[in-house]
Amino acid sequence: MSRIADRGAATPAEARAAFRDGLVEPTSGWSRGYAQANVLAIPREQAFDLLLFAQRNPKSCPILSVLEPGETTGPLLAGGDIRTDVPKYTVYRDGEKVDEPTDITGHWRDDLVTFLIGCSFTFEAALQDGGVRIAHIDQGVNVPMFRTNRECAPAGAMSGPLVVSMRPVPAAQVADAVRITSRYPAVHGAPVHIGNPDELGISDLGAPDFGEAVRIPEGHLPVFWACGVTPQAAVMRSRPPLAIGHAPGHMLITDARDSDYLVP
Amino acid sequence: MSRIADRGAATPAEARAAFRDGLVEPTSGWSRGYAQANVLAIPREQAFDLLLFAQRNPKSCPILSVLEPGETTGPLLAGGDIRTDVPKYTVYRDGEKVDEPTDITGHWRDDLVTFLIGCSFTFEAALQDGGVRIAHIDQGVNVPMFRTNRECAPAGAMSGPLVVSMRPVPAAQVADAVRITSRYPAVHGAPVHIGNPDELGISDLGAPDFGEAVRIPEGHLPVFWACGVTPQAAVMRSRPPLAIGHAPGHMLITDARDSDYLVP
Hints:
Two copies of one chain form a homodimer. By secondary structure, chain A is α+β, with helices and mostly antiparallel strands. Chain A contains six helices and eleven strands. Chain A folds into two domains: 7-120 and 238-258, PSTPO5379-like; 123-226, PSTPO5379-like domain (PSTPO5379-like fold, 2-Layer Sandwich). Chains A and B meet through helix 2 of A and helix 2 of B.
């Protein structure tokens, strides 16, 4: 296991080093106070469509940073390497998942453009500070994520459904959860839906499309936030020759502070 | 001259039709209550760099909409045509201005991607409603715009200086002007600088790089807002084979309402 005793206290550089050294686990709860990011690398030829897709769907695809073609590091991961510093990756060829490696050095190409997209793990510490417990942390599982029946605005060849993450929240705290997360628009902001999964086309909360199921405690409502796995769902639909994302829930831990993305 | 008697009362469709029919004049004060947009069309091959440049410089290049390659209309200009509906255009080849036509049909290519970028004319009605007079409207001239000594964040081949528009504001109303315009981040938002043009590398307020000089009344401070001509300055520096923008101050009048871009 890891050399890191307290995941919440690890600095981003320590966390990235642990993942680079081979630790594999979801990153919720890691490096408290620092922003986490969804990762998607795509060839330069498809990058315009993906960037436009993100621009047209800012709720699910809020861009924190874009690395130029072939770049493997940047200001959000000082001294890091995007090919090794994420706990686990998903490699797609022609839209099909072909590999889930812990290092993508062997898949890397110099024309890959890497998108870093905001992640709702970033506002979980603020929710906890506001007295809202995070069920998937309490239950020790990855956050559950679902494809919805809502279509994103397409861009060029890129189209796909909105993907959401779900957190159960006590009815009395739903307003707090909305208020707190709405102050973090760069990491998905306020929920997109509260309380009725059927309306999103989700028939079984116990069978998420990504991540793991959480038990919904009595008196809690399911609350749904837009999720940065959305562009990976678009990759599956749109089938670019190559795309490499993080494995859902296994994020890049960045050097940016949560508070960098806090609005008044 | 125009068939339109009251420019402020013209609907966006009427304004676009007047420009399509050959009217040429700056658009400040037109179609009160509707958003205006900077226009820049660039070949698909250079569009990723421009989109990334805009993403990295949101204050000067806030994207309202991007038309897909070859598209000439879109939801912000219902029934319109981006090739004819702007009063005057600037055509660049290899970064050099080669034409200032009132119609770009002859320059059009099917691989051109058109960016519509927020324009500070959009918040001028709100400034007026707040009691702040607009000097260039009162003086009947185009707004003055200046290249500054501030570099934008580059993206791929695209780099250039920040361009600003300048409006003189009475000292007692500068705070009002900040407060009012900060509520419109999608159309440049709050000023980038107040009061000292030297710090922006502007040596002579009477000699703007684009638009026309305005007289600065006694007791007024020059207030500078980021300007959507910034990507055209990047085109001049970065020299893509073809780029077509609006002529500075001669904007696209869109169907979006100013209030669509108002934040709380």
